[in-house]
């Protein structure tokens, strides 16, 4: 699990630092950026196998960095989503995201309003690419070996810490904990690979823009004729002011496509953060007010019951029953604390993409 110290380290990471975790292939030709279709040029969308190389090596101490930069954690050395989809094309539905009407032009988002991505988060969870709130915490108790596969992560943390398990049950508990923890790690690893692909593309295009701006005939990427400007005019390598303006316009349109994808990916992280924040609030309400094992109410009811047994209390020597009640109360409060600590420890992993603080 990720410690507070490692989280503080991650909070300082900007986009460049995050993208240093993967070796994204360089863009050396416009054919690697845009492709012609019957409706006009489109971006060459991210493909995990084709467009990234191996993870970068890293000596960082935090667990997520170790996870993303260790090839043995990934099939074929690359993170893979359970759904098999890329985030942009599979979940955000580029090049033509749904439900936006005329707010998309040339496959990029131009609306001034924030795009609500809560339904996208739901789709990701339904596809089992992220843990649901029930995966993190539920009140389903441990009743024996047959129930282990249906337990939540925090229940698994709790029984591993407090229950004397046989070797087979301990193996099953650890296996299920790894499954939950690695699910979100895998998603955020795939997220980093994909985001950094578009980030590298954006940086390359920005460099090309300034080359074109400062000279009508710079040393540029090959096949710039694949670009089209906002009037759908094909760009050329001509040296007139009109040709230069067309190329600049074509690059700006392409930059807008890339930036739209990166913006939606960052907004998606915010939507995921909102989902888990709401889940934590629900957990706290349940544990503070409900009668489930580990809640305040459950613990307090036990002590109240004992104190109301006046006959037993009066007959007790050295207040042993009261002391036993206090011990049970303390035990229940510790159980409550363990559950919350389990949730918080997991969410250090679950919202790792959010606290990356990816920014442009």
Strand content: 5-15%
Q: In total, how many beta strands?
A: 6
Question: What level of helicity do the residues show?
Answer: 55-70%
Low-pLDDT stretches? 1-12, 349-360
Description:
By secondary structure, this protein is mainly alpha-helical. It has one domain (4-99, 117-355). The protein has 14 helices and 6 strands. It has helices at 4-11, 15-19, 48-51, 63-68, 87-91, 118-126, 133-136, 153-162, 167-214, 241-289, 296-308, 310-315, 320-350, 352-355, and strands spanning 22-24, 34-37, 40-43, 52-55, 104-105, 108-109. The strands form 3 sheets. A two-stranded antiparallel sheet has the order 1-4. α8 crosses α9 (167-214), α8 crosses α13 (320-350) and α9 (167-214) packs antiparallel against α10 (241-289). The longest helix has 49 residues, at 241-289. The radius of gyration is 27 Å and the shape is elongated. Mean pLDDT is 78; it is low at 1-12 and 349-360.
In short:
This protein has 360 residues and is mostly helical. It has helices spanning 4-11, 15-19, 48-51, 63-68, 87-91, 118-126, 133-136, 153-162, 167-214, 241-289, 296-308, 310-315, 320-350, 352-355, and strands spanning 22-24, 34-37, 40-43, 52-55, 104-105, 108-109. The chain has a two-stranded antiparallel ribbon. The protein has a two-stranded antiparallel ribbon with strand order 2-3.
């Amino acid at each position: 699990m990720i410690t507070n110290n490692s989280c503080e380290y991650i909070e300082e990471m900007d986009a460049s630092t995050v993208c240093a975790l993967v070796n994204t292939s360089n863009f050396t030709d416009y054919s690697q950026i845009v492709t012609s279709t019957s409706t006009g040029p489109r971006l060459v969308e991210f493909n995990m196998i084709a467009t990234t190389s191996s993870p970068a090596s890293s000596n960082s101490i935090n667990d997520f960095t170790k996870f993303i930069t260790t090839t043995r954690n990934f099939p074929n050395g690359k993170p893979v989503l359970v759904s098999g989809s890329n985030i942009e094309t599979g979940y955000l539905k580029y090049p033509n995201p749904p439900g936006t009407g005329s707010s998309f032009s040339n496959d990029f988002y131009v609306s001034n309003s924030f795009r609500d991505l809560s339904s996208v988060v739901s789709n990701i969870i339904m596809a089992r690419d992220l843990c649901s709130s029930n995966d993190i915490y539920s009140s389903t108790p441990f009743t024996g070996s047959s129930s282990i596969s249906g337990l939540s992560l925090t229940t698994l943390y709790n029984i591993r810490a407090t229950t004397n398990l046989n070797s087979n049950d301990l193996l099953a508990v650890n296996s299920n904990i790894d499954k939950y923890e690695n699910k979100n790690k895998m998603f955020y690893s795939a997220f980093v690979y994909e985001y950094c692909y578009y980030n590298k593309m954006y940086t390359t295009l920005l460099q090309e823009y300034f080359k074109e701006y400062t000279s009508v005939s710079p040393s540029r990427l090959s096949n710039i004729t694949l670009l089209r400007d906002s009037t759908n005019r094909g760009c050329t390598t001509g040296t007139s002011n009109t040709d230069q303006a067309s190329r600049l316009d074509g690059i700006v349109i392409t930059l807008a496509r890339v930036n739209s994808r990166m913006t939606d990916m960052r907004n998606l992280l915010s939507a995921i953060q909102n989902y888990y924040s709401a889940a934590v609030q629900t957990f706290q309400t349940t544990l503070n007010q409900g009668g489930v094992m580990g809640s305040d109410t459950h613990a307090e009811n036990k002590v109240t019951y004992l104190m109301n047994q006046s006959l037993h209390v009066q007959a007790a020597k050295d207040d042993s029953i009261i002391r036993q009640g206090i011990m049970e109360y303390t035990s229940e409060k510790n159980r409550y604390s363990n559950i919350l600590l389990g949730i918080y420890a997991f969410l250090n992993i679950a919202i790792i993409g959010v606290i990356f603080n990816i920014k442009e």
